[in-house]
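step=predict obj=Thioesterase n=146
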Amino acid sequence: MERVKLDFPAEAVIHRHPMTVRVTDMNYGRHLGHDALVSLLHEARIQAFAALDLPEWDMHGYPSVVADLAVQYQSEARWPDGLTIATAVPEPQGKSLTIYQRIYQLDSQQVVATARINQLLIDLASGRPVDVPEQVKQALSRARCG
């Protein structure tokens, strides 16, 4: 079986967000369900961009949409595990933001999962993707340096 393998760009981390596995995040296998994992990733991504004053619904005049998502599951998490989700965004190229996220167990730092999301900024008038605005690139660059 071919598995997704993602390389997490640690040098591009812009934010770390603490979270806790909720009992409602558990699946019938008694561990963090894949649907809940995507929800946790979304929350951490929103928090990361909000910390840079870049809400996903208005990134300098453009809302964003997720074009695709890949997840590499690496270990299990269970209620009430504490987690940290690191969000990394390498230098944007063209029309997409490539966002990497890595979920760690808070205590052991064991990797639970790594994800890659390609996000596009959309011109509402045309419905088409636009180049990533320079202001967004600058905000991401400042976050990576600090």
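step=describe
The chain has one domain: 10-145.
step=end
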